[in-house]
Write a structure and sequence with these properties.
The protein is of the alpha+beta class and 504 residues long. The protein has 3 domains: 21-134, no CATH class; 164-278, no CATH class; 299-458, no CATH class. It is 43% helix and 12% strand. Strands 1-2-4-5-3 form a 5-stranded antiparallel sheet, with helices on both faces. The protein has a 5-stranded antiparallel sheet with strand order 6-7-9-10-8. The radius of gyration is 30 Å and the shape is elongated. It starts with 20 loop residues before the first helix and ends in a 45-residue tail after the last strand.
């Protein structure tokens, strides 16, 4: 029941803080019933009996030193004047007694309950229906280390952690610009997960920002435990194997994307930060490309592109040449392949499918197992099983070489592994029915499909098909910095200038 002069802002009208401290304690005991981690500590000022109060927090989520030294001890020991109690004792305690960098008044039960669950301390005072939410978070957070998924030889060794506060600090250190904006909101009807939009206001397109906010508003789910939840819910082409929302664990990568007008999306509890928009060429760009010499970086980028093409094409081309288009193979090589296939029980297409399946099983097993055991599994699978299968005349030696080349090439771009599995299987089936024509039709269909995808209104193949010299200077090749004077037009619609002067 609501009490006089105590208005509840919560959606649940059944619960409201009253002026009676005993009723308030019973209220929180009811809300957090059967939860032994809830701690309610009552105490009273030794000089003023009216200063009867309590603090409510969750054990293990708070810094107990903050509670003892900054809240309990000051209230117990300070001599509070008698004439203050009848006026505004709560405000006096807040402004002159409690030592904290963050104190907030609230009568909203939803906000108060979330604060308790997230490691803050709620302070209640007899005679007042307003609670003080005091920052006292004390749970452990992982230290800043190099991200495992994006290792580099040259470049910063910092990686995002599960603490959003630490992650925002890492970005602030790199971009010291008042135009860098952070907008907070919550998602998840039960988890109330904090998320944060990060962007440079003078560079980011308002259209893209509004579209992102609209898609976030449409999310209605009980919990968000990782940024992957949001990535799947807001992406364009939801059934596509290609990402239209990027992700990174590296602060330097996110900073570079923010400087190009993109938007970062932090999610509390995960080190993976989302970026939008995301275009196809970003698969082949690495942070090290911009720290090394542009010639060496361009060579590495071309190798990644070749690796992606090999990972989806080699099995299909091998099947089409050995099954349908044998006249295109040099005679000595054709005789060698035919000799290797003598006495084998399965056709080439079955060999290819089985070997590719075995490789994916070994790759997944090596990924999920502990690092030392995973390496052993990969070595045993690649050497022992492959050699044993050839000696047992179950598969031919050429198909083992094709599988190994395909697998190694696919590892050049880890983020494309999912799409490459689907594409190489599709191309393999087309090649097994129509030969090289099937493979060519598959490639043409893939190009047409990619041309039709958009990421937050931005064409997925932006820059690649552009005729503007400035737009293609960071695509297949990485031009020197003094040549890349303008930002990409697809995202930074307000200010295109990266460098005002060109090197002579």
């Amino acid at each position: 029941m609501l009490k006089a002069n105590c208005k509840n802002k919560s959606n649940d009208k059944q619960y409201a803080i009253t002026k009676d401290l005993g009723e308030n304690i019973a209220l929180f005991q009811t809300i957090f019933s059967n939860d032994d981690t809830l701690i309610i500590r009552t105490f009273q000022n030794k000089h003023l009996k009216a200063a009867k109060c309590c603090i409510i927090y969750v054990d293990g989520m708070v810094n107990t030193e903050i509670l003892d030294q900054n809240i309990i001890r000051p209230i117990l020991d300070n001599k509070l004047d008698e004439d203050i109690a009848e006026r505004n004792l709560l405000e006096e305690i807040r402004n002159k007694v409690i030592v904290s960098s963050s104190i907030k008044e609230s009568i909203d039960m939803s906000e108060i309950n979330q604060a308790i669950s997230y490691g803050d301390t709620v302070f209640l005072l007899e005679g007042f229906c307003t609670a003080l939410i005091i920052s006292s978070k004390g749970w452990q957070a992982r230290q800043v280390t190099e991200p495992i998924s994006e290792k580099v030889v040259r470049g910063p060794r910092e990686g995002f952690t599960e603490s959003m506060t630490i992650n925002l600090t890492l970005i602030r250190r790199k971009i010291k610009d008042p135009d860098l904006k952070f907008k907070f909101r919550q998602l998840g009807t039960r988890t109330h997960t904090d998320i944060c939009l990060c962007y440079i206001e003078s560079l980011t397109s308002d259209k893209i920002l509004n579209e992102l906010n609209k898609r976030l508003d449409d999310i209605d789910i009980d919990g968000i435990l990782d940024s992957g939840y949001i990535q799947e819910l807001i992406k364009d082409a939801p059934l596509s194997p290609f990402d239209t929302v990027g992700s990174t664990e590296r602060p330097d990568v996110l900073a570079s994307k923010l400087l190009e007008g993109r938007i970062g999306l932090f999610v509390d509890g995960t080190p993976f930060v989302l970026t939008v928009p995301f275009i196809f060429m970003e698969y082949f760009q690495a942070s090290e490309d911009y720290y090394n010499n542009f010639i060496f970086a361009s060579v590495n980028r071309i190798l990644r592109i070749i690796g992606a093409l090999l990972s989806i094409s080699v099995p299909a081309i091998y099947i089409s040449l050995t099954t349908f288009n044998q006249e295109m193979i040099p005679t000595p090589l054709l005789l060698s392949i035919s000799a290797a296939r003598q006495g084998l029980p399965f056709p080439t297409i079955i060999e290819a499918i089985v070997m590719l399946l075995v490789f994916e099983i070994l790759r997944e097993a090596g990924t999920r197992m502990p690092s030392t055991i995973g390496q052993a599994v990969n070595i045993v699978g690649a050497l022992v099983l492959g050699q044993a299968a050839v000696q047992a005349r179950l598969v031919s030696a050429p198909i083992v070489i094709v599988t190994a080349l395909t697998g190694i090439a696919s590892l050049l771009i880890v983020n494309l592994i999912g799409a490459s599995i689907i594409l190489k299987t599709l191309f393999l089936l087309l090649a097994s029915t129509m030969g090289l024509y099937g493979y060519i039709f598959g490639v043409l269909g893939l190009v047409v499909y990619l041309m039709g995808i958009r990421s937050f209104g931005v064409p997925y193949m932006s820059n690649i098909m552009s005729l503007d010299p400035q737009e293609i200077k960071d695509t297949f090749l990485r031009a020197p910095w003094w040549q890349m004077r303008l930002l990409p037009k697809f995202a930074a619609t307000k200010n295109h200038v990266r460098q005002s002067k060109k090197r002579n």
